[in-house]
Write a structure and sequence with these properties.
This protein is mainly α. It has helices at 2-30, 46-56, 69-72, 119-122, 124-128, 137-144, 148-158, 164-175, 184-189, 197-207, 242-245, 277-286, 305-316, 321-325; strands at residues 227-228, 254-255. The protein folds into two domains: 46-175, Cytochrome Bc1 Complex, Chain D, domain 2, CATH 1.10.760; 181-325, Cytochrome c-like domain (Cytochrome Bc1 Complex, Chain D, domain 2, Orthogonal Bundle), CATH 1.10.760.
Length: 326
């Protein structure tokens, strides 16, 4: 009888292992690198990458030549920032937390409210925003056309003067090279490393019914890019997507961010109001606050302290050290 129990136990373990391997295979397929969509006339070349990178780190975009794109999108923080709101020209206060540009080339739309359809168009927003660069793309073009190095690089890359077209396209090309897919989680899915017991528990919560995190943060980039309200506040200072649509149904609606490299992109939320991953997990565990547009998926999770800790540990496996250190 005892021997029979051992056999049943072994069979049960084998069945569990089989089911887990099938689930892992499904998740692995879901996390394969998607195809990047971009203009056919703006193919990625080393010359265009070099031009876009130079522009990205050049303070020429700001009206007082004090800040560049990289001033707010810092490489070592996955091209995000470490402050609640990044200051603009003349130290003017920002109005939204700086989002990461990692894997930005895979996004279907841009800005926190998802109101801009392409990276190239997105580049124009911070240029003209008074709390950011407070400048004008036409004036910027005139300025860099007086710089011989830019003229040479532009003609090699696009066979034209460095005008508004070249500036926005080159920036788009450079940003599309900011690809992150070498985290511990990725290595685990490739069978190269093992997760700890706690990390596996956190992974099970993340993808399972208990946490249901992957319903919004699924896919290769750990986001569905869903435009939604996560119950952060009962009343928001930021009207979110409604700023673009003027529709009350879009009041305080924001794009779901990627969770890749979340460990280095603090503070969190559109307003930078949360400083730790633990705080973010506690928010979702509570079910969030009431708001007329709160997503129906945001409900109390009833996770124990140990489950919350395991979930945090799993989220830290999404850190791509090679990306943030390069």
């Amino acid at each position: 009888m005892k021997k029979k129990g051992v056999v049943i136990g072994i069979l049960a373990l084998l069945l569990f292992s089989c089911l887990l391997s099938k689930k892992t295979a499904f998740i692995s397929k879901e996390f394969s690198l998607p195809e990047m969509v971009y203009e056919t006339e703006n193919q990625i070349t080393k010359e265009r990458i070099a031009l876009g990178k130079k522009l990205f780190f050049d303070p020429v975009f700001s009206i007082d030549s004090s800040i560049s794109c990289a001033s707010c999108h810092k490489p070592k923080y996955a091209f995000s920032d470490t402050v609640k709101f990044s200051p603009g020209v003349f130290n003017r206060p920002g109005i939204r937390n700086t989002p990461s540009l990692m894997n930005i080339g895979f996004h279907p739309y841009f800005l926190r409210e998802g109101s801009v359809p392409t990276i190239e168009m997105q580049a124009l927003i911070p240029i003209q925003e008074k709390n950011e660069f407070a400048h004008n793309i036409v004036e910027i073009s005139k300025k860099i056309q007086q710089i011989p190095e830019y003229v040479t690089m532009s003609k090699v890359a696009y066979d034209r003067e460095p005008d508004h077209y070249v500036i926005t396209r080159a920036l788009g090309v450079f940003q599309r090279t900011l690809i992150s897919k070498s985290s511990k989680f990725d290595s685990y899915m490739d069978g190269k490393v093992k997760l700890t017991k706690s990390e596996k528990n956190g992974m099970a919560i993340f993808f399972g019914e208990k946490g249901n995190c992957s319903s919004c943060h699924g896919g290769f980039n750990f986001t569905s890019y869903k435009l939604t309200n996560n119950g952060l506040n009962e009343n928001y200072e930021d009207v979110g997507r409604m700023r673009a649509t003027k529709d009350s149904a879009d009041l305080s609606i924001f794009k779901t961010p990627s969770l890749r490299n979340i460990e280095v992109t603090s503070p969190y939320m559109h307003d930078g109001s949360m400083v730790s991953i633990e705080e973010v997990v506690s928010h979702y565990n509570s079910g969030g606050k009431n708001h007329v547009n709160k997503d129906s998926l945001i409900k109390p999770l009833h996770l124990s302290n140990s489950e919350k800790a395991d979930l945090v540990l799993f989220l830290k496996t999404l850190t791509d050290e090679a990306f943030v250190e390069n």
